[in-house]
Amino acid sequence: MSEDRSGSQSKSWLDKLFGAFSSDTDEPSSRSELLQFLSEVGPRLNLDQDAIAIIEGALEISDQQVREVMIPRSQVQAIQVDQRPEEYLPLILESAHSRYPVIDENLDEVLGILLAKDLLPLILQNDSERKRFDLREAIRPAMFIPESKRLNSLLKEFRETRNHMAVVIDEYGGTAGLVTIEDILEQIVGDIEDEHDTDEDEDIRELGDGQYAVSALTTIDDFNEHFSTDFSDEEFDTVGGLMIQRFGHMPRRQESTDFTGWRFTVLNADNRRIRQVQVCRLEDATGDAPPSEEHRAHISGE
């Protein structure tokens, strides 16, 4: 009797779900059809757009690789193992990250991960005790993964090992970047305000060396006024809209495009929208080629 009841309940639930379509409509046979199906029957099942977006994000991470969401090497903030606390504590206070890779001579030699909370005992130590503090004894083992690892697989591994950060290795064994559990969750639920996100209080913020962080919601008119440019705002009002037009798709982190003498690189984005962009004149870009009138887009590091 229990099996019949269970089967009856399952059948009733499926009938309710797939019966939301007309009887002459086939059941979804692919991911795209399933998403379309959910968007159409969502209101009848009390699924709002946010819930449908989360389902879509959960499905998409099985196709995404670590290289698409990682914090690139150029933005990794690391601590050298022979540094004294007074040398790296200012970095920790300024960046407010919770985890840092600890390296030997360069980023390709990651020795482990330092959790900022593991430095709390230093507060109670006197000067002589701090001088004897050995960073090698405080670091935890680092988790190393390839750039090609699938996000769904990494999320499962994070949960099983209780790690929150992994060092991403390229095909030559060098450090390509870092990835955190938050980077994966953002692909599912949207942006999470965490320690890796840049401050968006200012729409346009100078980073140095001719680089600027620009909020994707910055109006094109404000951008033109600030940089003395003349980008058209006839079709789009914001920098984010302009970038999507140029790419022809929703770009991912570190994807960049060069046009009209400028390079635009996505700093912060999820599968729904662009949040933060890094911009610089092509003449200030490292290893840059002469500007091209034709739209050129590439994934940084590939």
Question: Which fold name fills CATH's third level, the topology of the largest domain?
Answer: CBS-domain
Using the 3D structure, state the CATH architecture of the largest domain: Roll
Class based on secondary structure composition and strand pairing: alpha+beta
Can you tell me the residue ranges where pLDDT is under 50 for at least 5 consecutive residues? 1-14, 287-302
General shape: globular
From the N-terminal CA to the C-terminal CA, the straight-line distance is 59 Å
Classified by CATH, the class of the largest domain is: Alpha Beta
Question: Treating each run of at least 4 consecutive H or I residues as one helix, how many helices?
Answer: 10
Provide the domain count.
3
Beta-strand percent range: 15-25%
Helix content: 25-40%
Account of the protein in words:
It is a single chain. The chain is 32% helix and 21% strand. The protein folds into 3 domains: 2-47, no CATH class; 66-189, CBS-domain, CATH 3.10.580.10; 204-299, Uridine Diphospho-n-acetylenolpyruvylglucosamine Reductase, domain 3 (2-Layer Sandwich). It is of the alpha+beta class. The N and C termini lie far apart (59 Å). Residues 70-129, 138-198 form the CBS domain. Pfam families: CBS, CorC_HlyC. This is Magnesium and cobalt efflux protein CorC. Plays a role in the transport of magnesium and cobalt ions.
Topology:
Elements: H1 2-18, H2 31-41, H3 49-60, E1 71-72, E2 79-80, H4 85-95, E3 99-103, E4 110-115, H5 127-131, H6 135-138, E5 144-146, H7 151-161, E6 165-169, E7 175-180, H8 181-189, E8 204-208, E9 211-215, H9 220-227, H10 239-247, E10 255-259, E11 262-269, E12 274-281, E13 296-299
Parallel strand pairs: 2-3, 5-6
Antiparallel strand pairs: 1-7, 3-4, 6-7, 8-9, 9-12, 10-11, 10-13, 11-12
Helix pairs in contact: 2-3
